[in-house]
Design goal:
Two copies of one chain form a homodimer. The first copy, chain A, is an alpha+beta fold. The first copy, chain A, is built from seven helices and ten strands. The first copy, chain A, has a single domain, classed as Trna Endonuclease, Chain: A, domain 1. The first copy, chain A, starts with 6 loop residues before the first helix and ends with a helix.
C-alpha cells in the first residue's frame, strides 16, 4: 500500500474524506508563489507569465478537529535509517512553536517512503530534538520510539486522526464512541476491516 | 486614516503585530495558483512561466486566538449603501458553515472603502442572511446593526481582536486583564492614546 502515492496526495485524500464525513475540517494551504508578471488576454482568464516559489512561512496543513486548532507539517524521506532536519524550514519550526504557545495541537507527519511507514510526532518533542546540541537528523529508531505509526487504510489513506485521538484526547471518549453516528460513521476502513465486512456479508 | 491602504494590507500588518506581541497567531493563506509550466534554468531558481489563479475553496485568513481556532474572510466594497453578496464565493460560505460546526470562531470583515469604515460580522448571522430569500446584498444600515465597527489604530491598523474579545469571549476576562503583560502589552494604539502618552511624557 502507498507505493507510488505521494504523502501529499494521501493527506489531501484523507482530509477530503474526513471533511466529507464531518469528522474534521483540515486543508492544505496553497503553495506560496510570488507573482511577477500577469497577462490579461481579452475574453479569457488572467495568465501568470512569470512567478517564483516562495519559502513557506508557516506549515502546509491546518484546520479544526474536535473544537481544537490543529496545525502540522508533512515530510517524506527516501532514507531508511534517519530523517534529516534540513528538510524542515526553520520558519516551520518557529511557527509550530507558536501553535503550541497559543494552545493549538501541533505535530509532524514523517514518511519513510522506502519502508512505507508514516509516523506522527508531537511538535514539542521534535522541536526539542531540533534545538538539542548539534543534531542534524532524527534516527529511524528514535522516530519509532517517540512517534506513533499511522495506520494506512483504503479510506482514508492515512488514518492519522486516530493517532491524534490517542495522543491529544486520551482523557476524553474516543471519536467513535462520542460521535452521534456511532462507530463506523467516519472510521478508518482498512483491508482487514473490509474483508471482515465481506465475511459477514457472505454468511 | 486608511485612505489608499487596502484591507488586505491593513490585515496583514495587524496580524504581523498581533503575532509579534504574541496575542494571536493568524495568517493570510497564499492565493491558490494552478501552475502549468515551470522552467528550471541552470544555477537559478525555478521560474513559473504559465499559471492561473484558482477559485479559493476556503477563506483567506485563519489561525489561533486564545486557544480557539479562528477563520475569516475579508472583503471590501466601494458601494456606500450596501455590500453585494456576489463578492463572496459560495465555497467560502460553505467553508465558514463548517468552521462553526467544528467549534471554530468564524466571521467576515467588511470594509466600505468610500466611508472608511470596517465591520466585523459573525459568520452565522451573515450566512443566514445569504440564504434567506432572494437577497443579493446586505444594506449598510444592516451591517451597522448586526456587525461591530472595528477601531482603526496606528498599531495595529485594525484592532479587530478587540471586537473578537467582545463578541466571542464576553464571559471571560478581557485580553488586557488576563495577559501577564497587563494592559498596554499588545493593545491597540490609536492617535488618541498616543497623544495621551505624549501629554504624559511632556509633563
Amino acid at each position: 500500500m502507498g507505493r507510488g502515492m505521494s504523502l501529499e496526495h494521501d493527506l489531501n485524500d484523507s482530509n477530503a474524506y474526513y471533511c466529507s464525513c464531518e469528522r474534521a475540517l483540515i486543508h492544505k494551504k496553497p503553495t506560496p508563489i510570488q507573482v511577477v508578471k500577469v497577462d490579461y488576454p481579452e475574453r479569457s482568464a488572467a495568465k501568470i507569465t512569470e512567478a517564483y516559489y516562495k519559502t513557506p512561512s508557516t506549515t502546509d496543513y491546518n484546520g479544526i478537529y474536535r473544537g481544537r486548532a490543529i496545525d502540522f507539517e508533512a515530510k517524506e524521506t527516501r532514507q531508511k535509517t534517519s530523517f534529516p532536519f534540513k528538510s524542515i524550514h526553520p520558519h516551520q519550526i518557529e511557527h509550530l512553536k507558536k501553535v503550541l504557545q497559543h494552545g493549538g495541537i501541533g505535530f509532524f507527519i514523517i514518511r519513510f517512503t522506502t519502508l512505507e511507514e508514516t509516523y506522527l510526532i508531537d511538535a514539542g518533542i521534535l522541536i526539542d530534538m531540533y534545538y538539542e546540541g548539534e543534531r542534524k537528523s532524527i534516527s529511524y529508531m528514535k522516530v519509532k520510539e517517540v512517534g506513533s505509526l499511522i495506520r494506512m487504510g483504503l479510506t482514508p489513506r492515512l488514518c492519522y486522526l486516530d493517532n491524534v485521538d490517542a495522543l491529544y484526547f486520551k482523557e476524553e471518549k474516543s471519536y467513535g464512541t462520542k460521535s452521534k453516528r456511532g462507530n463506523g460513521g467516519c472510521e478508518c476502513i482498512t483491508e482487514a476491516t473490509r474483508s471482515k465486512g465481506h465475511q459477514r456479508n457472505n454468511r
